[in-house]
Amino acid sequence: MLGGKQDRRAKIWRVAAVFVATGALALSGCASGSNSGGGSGGGGESSTSSAPAEKVEAIANTVPEAIKSSGKLVIGVNIPYAPNEFKDPEGKIVGFDVDLMNAIAGTLGLTPEYREADFAKIIPSIQGGTFNVGMSSFTDSKEREQSVDFVTYFSAGTLWAQKPGAGIDPENACGKKVAVQATTVQETDELPARSKKCTDAGKPAIEIVPFDSQDAATNAVVLGQADAMSADSPVTLYAIKQTNGKLEQAGETFDSAPYGWPVAKGSPLAQSLLQALEHLIETGKYKEIAANWGLEAGMIDKPVINGAVS
């Protein structure tokens, strides 16, 4: 679950929670091939103070009968990946995605039930009927749309961060040390391509410094062990916010793509989720939730079913 696992198509943009501790940062991150095991995850309570969303009968009536009669929305999730989905000190599953899904479930008159699983097992579990929907910062891709349908709810890209005043330019970072979370699209695709441009031009290669977790990658920049970091834009924006002035953006967000909630191919649940999200956008609840996590930049105006750009 992280900044674009493995490649652009597998990108699931993940974020790391940052907490200042004895001069260093401790972030919650999630790397490709996440170490979360299967089973039921407790909690699902939001860390924000926003009131729960109320049931909207007309939208709730669109929910497939089997789900409606169960009274539950079973959600496959892979954690940690703050601020989207992670556990607070009490062990509750919290985050932007969680707050938003809680509001979606409330609108549909359902109780959200979060079940932790390996990231790679979520889509197969949706296909097999174990989960109703997935919630792990999935990038909606053409390849994935062959297996499941997606309801888009956010836009994310890649964004660099640096120490204030470092003057790092992602377009001209030859010879620089750039920290990344291992197996993310930034490590496997973005930085190797940038580095090749450098060496092809006779310039020093970019030194790609991978870490098992996003927290370690962020710490490396804060502590001066790397010149910059490259991660999914929500990851980077949240890290900047939580480090209280120790980091700043380097350049702008690029290669944006939609996050989506995967559901079984052809399931009418997609339309239910779409209508619920449209309702939350219209009422301002969606913006309120995004603002609580500092993620307004990734908000979308109109969700769609299967909105992959590549």
UniProtKB/TrEMBL annotation:
InterPro entries: Solute-binding_3/MltF_N. The keyword Magnesium does not apply. It holds the Pfam family SBP_bac_3. Residues 72-297 form the Solute-binding protein family 3/N-terminal domain. PROSITE patterns: PROKAR_LIPOPROTEIN. Residues 35-45 have a biased composition (Gly residues). Residues 1-26 form the signal peptide. Residues 34-53 are annotated as: Disordered. The keyword NAD does not apply. Keywords: Signal. This is Glutamine-binding periplasmic protein. The gene is glnH_11.
